[in-house]
Amino acid sequence: MKNTEKLYLAGGCYWGMEELFRHMPGVVATQVGFSGGHIANVAYREVTTGTTGHAETLMVEFDPDLVTIKHLLFEFFRVHNPTKPNQQGNDIGTQYRSAIFFQNEAQKAVAEQVIATVNASGQWGMPVVTQLEAFQAFYPAEDKHQKYIMQFPDGYTCHHRRNFDLGETP
Question: Whole-model pTM above 0.90?
Answer without folding.
Answer: yes
